[in-house]
Amino acid sequence: MDLFLQQTVNAFALGGTYALLALGLAMVFSTMGLINFAHGELMTIAGYILMACGLAGVPFAFSILLAIAAAVLAAIVMERIAFRPVRNASGATMLVTSFAVSMILQVLFQNFISARSQAVLVPEILSESVRFGGLVIGVNKIAAIVTTIVMLIFLDRFMKHHRIGIAMRAAAEDFSVARLMGIRANTVIAGAFALSGFLAGVAAVLWVSQRASVDPLMGFTPVLKAFIAAILGGLGSLRGAVAGGFLLGFIEIYLAAYLPSGMQEFRDPIALCLVVLVLIFRPNGLIPSPALKAEKV
Fold first, then answer.
1. How many whole angstroms separate alpha carbon 253 and alpha carbon 32?
2. Average pLDDT over the chain, rounded to whole?
3. Once rounded to an integer, what is the mean pLDDT over residues 6-18?
4. Is residue 231 one of the residues assigned to a domain?
5. Among 2, 17, 256, 296, which is 20 to 30 Å from 163 by CA?
6. Using CA atoms, how far apart are residues 204 and 193, in angstroms rounded to an integer?
């Protein structure tokens, strides 16, 4: 029982990170119809800011603010320079653009910083553990769960009560009608990118806090998993992104914990098979986007 509870805590921590990243992808997709595969590089930028601040002796709390601010700024610049000029192009063109931005940033990281993994100085308290009865839970896991809960509550209130959040929800429902109602496309899309950068920055802090390192490809695997989570939850659905992120986190952790040692090398294929099994019964995802009116048959 203790092992199950221990792995459940780990699943919540990992699933929360996937949920935040999937939310960032879903927000951009719901407004632009774009899967931004350069989203992972926003994580990497935040990670390198944490590394630089640690080397410069900046307090970790202030480093977190700088890292998140850098991810938000990078997302806004990315939208303005790379995606706004091709906004009215085909989906394939925007997809290729996102891959191009991702590749360019990875090469810049490798050539101007380092191709190798770099250590990040994190507070010692994050490497400590807390005992609850028979459970031993890492402080970084607790921080990840609490941060995820706070972020989800904040985003829920932001999307329901803030003017930009309401505009983003309206644009996700029907962008054309939203524009006729006076909502500015540039404001909504820039806001979606800024919010996605904010989520990527928070996810980067959680990711780095548990690994204490950063490398040029740091964001690739988490964002790929977040993309799977977004599809699993219902592409374009914000609540679905959260559900898909947590479900994928639970699948990965439970397979790692309970799969026989001889089958551990097949853990990822088995996880993907389970995802496909869910999608067979829920083709539009766990919580389909309201904008998705018809099922594919």
1. 33
2. 88
3. 91
4. no
5. 17
6. 16
Asked whether residue 78 is domain-assigned, the answer is: yes
Percent of the chain with pLDDT over 70: 95
| pLDDT tens sequence across 248-262 | 999 999 999 999 888
| Range with the poorest average pLDDT among 108-112, 214-218, 257-261 | 257-261
Q: Which domain holds residue 46?
A: 15-217
Distance CA 67, CA 185 (A): 27
Which positions ≥6 away from 263 have C-beta within 8 Å?
270
- In order, the DSSP letters of 80-94 are IIIIGGGTTS-HHHH
Q: Is residue 271 part of a domain?
A: no
In contact, 222 and 43? CB cutoff 8 Å: yes
Give the tokens for residue 279.
């999608």
End-to-end alpha carbon distance in the chain: 43
Say whether 119 sits in a helix, a strand or coil. strand
DSSP per-residue letters across 186-226: HHHHHHHHHHHHHHHHHHHHHHHHHH-EE-TTTTHHHHHHH
Type and span of the H or E element at 136? strand 135-138
Which residues is 132 bridged to in the sheet? Answer: 135
Our count of domains for the chain comes to 1
CA separation for the pair 89, 167 (Å, rounded): 23
pTM over 0.85: yes
Within a domain: residue 140? yes
> What are the tokens at 215?
């490398």
